[in-house]
Amino acid sequence: xxxxxxxxxxxxxxxxxxxxxxxxxxxxxxxxxxxxxxxxxxxxxxxxxxxxxxxxxxxxxxxxxxxxxxxxxxxxxx
Length: 78
Known about the structure:
3 helices
């Protein structure tokens, strides 16, 4: 939740449009890591936080794809 909240805050975008952190500016990446480290205690570096974000995005993409596949296969059944 902290990852998603931080991403939405720094980009000012909807969750769907803020997923690709590679498109963020250096400033947005730094802000993202700064906000995340305020929410989650511990020692974090930029690479580690961005890596966790990419893993979350990958997982979300897979779950959305699986749900959409199930829904479209059910819609076609009569």
